[in-house]
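Backbone-to-sequence.
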């Protein structure tokens, strides 16, 4: 009969250990969730401050006379830093809604910087070359990552080259307008716009170097004619 008796003590111990493990798992899950949310908020606050600073700087630069504008008078440095923060966030944080919002805002700042520098280049004769780069995710564009590496190398070689990158799928009216203006199609990505010329498909570093040097040469010629 004693063998058939329920060992309540053993069941209580098992229940206690199971409950303890459940509580521990719940605590750790909440802890890491809160940590991720904290990371998102930190990045969001940092980038929001950068955005406000960049927009203020944009307004100031628009009012400067040509003699006060130097090679550093653009938002490009701030945009590069913000881009690095967003890349870190995309690699380390799962909450895509916050990052999507910041990515869209970042795209708008890129457009503003592009328009600002084009205006400065035309008004003050500053020598810049511009590339608009349209890409999408790797699943739909196998050559986009390789094209991005080429463009990064070109930026290092040509300090006065400005490359602005835009995800084709970004739901922004400004980007959609650019796609219509330059007739960029989702089936022909990656796509580059250099001196208003649309280049579709992967382009080698040698080909782009030639076109960039020609772009700088044309600016020199127009400047000497003035």
């Amino acid at each position: 009969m004693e063998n058939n008796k329920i060992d309540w003590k053993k069941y209580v111990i098992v229940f206690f250990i199971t409950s303890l493990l459940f509580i521990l798992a719940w605590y750790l899950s909440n802890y890491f969730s809160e940590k991720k949310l904290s990371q998102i908020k930190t990045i969001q606050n940092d980038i929001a401050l950068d955005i406000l600073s960049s927009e203020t700087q944009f307004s100031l630069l628009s009012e400067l006379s040509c003699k006060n504008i130097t090679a550093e008078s653009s938002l490009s440095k701030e945009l590069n830093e913000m881009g690095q923060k967003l890349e870190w966030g995309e690699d380390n944080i799962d909450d895509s809604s916050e990052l999507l919002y910041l990515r869209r805002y970042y795209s708008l700042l890129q457009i503003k910087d592009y328009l600002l520098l084009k205006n400065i280049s035309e008004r003050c004769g500053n020598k810049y070359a511009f590339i608009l780069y349209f890409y999408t995710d790797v699943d739909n564009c196998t050559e986009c990552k390789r094209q991005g590496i080429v463009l990064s190398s070109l930026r290092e070689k040509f300090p006065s080259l400005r490359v602005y990158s835009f995800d084709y799928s970004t739901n922004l009216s400004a980007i959609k307008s650019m796609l219509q203006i330059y007739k960029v199609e989702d089936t022909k990505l990656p796509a580059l716009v250099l001196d208003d010329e649309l280049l579709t498909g992967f382009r080698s570093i040698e080909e782009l170097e030639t076109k960039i040097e020609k772009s700088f040469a044309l600016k020199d010629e127009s400047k000497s004619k003035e």
